[in-house]
Write a structure and sequence with these properties.
Layout: H1 2-24, H2 32-48, H3 61-97
Helix pairs in contact: 2-3
């Protein structure tokens, strides 16, 4: 009987330990704004991946190539800017979720 009582007491002690640790844990920061910014930046990268060449569709040959070239170059610069913005947003989100992470301001 004594052995059973000690086993039950030990089991209760071990089961209650994680609950006590969870109560002492600090509240997670609210990162919804940074998550939305990261999602928007990712969507912008996908949108900037292909330039809109519809204005050159009616042209043929060399004229079409000359029409598409500046649009493609602008598309490349826009895509690069969007990727940089997405990287910054993801870094900000990572720092919000884990402020002790290497490279974060804290």
């Amino acid at each position: 009987m004594k052995r059973t009582l000690m086993t039950v007491a030990t089991a209760l002690f071990l089961c209650s330990a994680p609950l006590a640790l969870a109560a002492d844990a600090p509240a997670k920061p609210d990162c919804t704004e940074k998550q939305k910014a990261a999602d928007d930046a990712s969507a912008a990268v996908k949108a900037a991946a292909k330039p809109d060449l519809s204005s050159c569709a009616d042209k043929k040959g060399k004229d079409k190539t000359e029409c598409e070239k500046p649009l493609k170059e602008k598309g490349k610069t826009d895509a690069k800017a969007a990727k940089d913005k997405a990287k910054e947003a993801k870094d900000a989100l990572a720092c919000c979720k884990n402020p002790k992470k290497k490279g974060c301001g804290s």
